[in-house]
Amino acid sequence: MELGAFSVSLAVKDLSASKAFYQALGFSHFHGDLEHNFLIMKNGDALVGLFQGMFEDNILTFNPGWDSSANELDSFADVRELQRHLINQGIEPVQTVDEKGQGPGSFVVMDPDGNAILVDQHR
Predict the structure, then answer these.
(1) Stretch 49-58: mean pLDDT
(2) Measured between alpha carbons, how far is residue 115 from residues 31, 78, 89, 102, 112 in Å?
(3) What is the pLDDT of residue 56?
(4) How confident is the model at residue 1 (pLDDT cuts 50, 70, 90)?
(5) pTM for this entry
(6) 85-103 burial string, b = 16+ CB within 10 Å, else e?
(7) Long-range CB contact pairs, 79-85, < 8 A, 24+
C-alpha cells in the first residue's frame, strides 16, 4: 500500500524559533509562510511541517498523489481506497473521508500508542 509523500507535522509554540532551529539542522523553507502560521521545511527527501496554533499534538502525515517534492504522481491510490483498505484491516478512522466524494480529502487513524496519522490527498 503506497501512502505517498511522508512528513512529520509538528505543533510548535514559536514558529520563527522552530524555523531557525530546523534551518540550523540543514532544512530549507519549502512551502507555507509565517503569516499563515505554518511552514514546510525540507532537507533532501525529509519533510517537516511546522504548525503554530493549528493542532495540539504532533502528527505523522502522508500525502497520496505527491512525491517528496510535492510533484504530482501520475498514478496513486486514492485516499478513499486507502481508507477502505485500513477499515478492512480492522483499523477504524477517527476522522473519515466521504466515500462518495472524489479529489481532495483526508482521514485520520490513531496508532496503538495514540499517535495521529493523517492521510491527506490534495488533488
Answers:
(1) 95
(2) 24, 23, 18, 27, 7
(3) 92
(4) confident
(5) 0.89
(6) ebeeeeeebeeebeeeeee
(7) 79/105, 79/106, 79/107, 79/119, 79/120, 79/121, 80/105, 82/1, 82/3, 82/107, 82/119, 83/107, 83/119, 85/1
**pLDDT tens-digit profile of 7-38?**
999 999 999 999 999 999 999 999 999 999 99
**What nine digits make up the cell of 22?**
530546523
State how far the Cα of 1 lies from the Cα of 35, in Å rounded to an integer.
36
The number of beta carbons lying within 10 Å of the beta carbon of residue 28 is 9
Q: Which residues lie closer than 8 Å to 93 by C-beta, 6 or more apart? A: 83, 86, 87, 107, 108, 109
16 vs 120: CA distance, rounded Å? 25
Which residue is associated with the grid cell 504530482?
Answer: 72
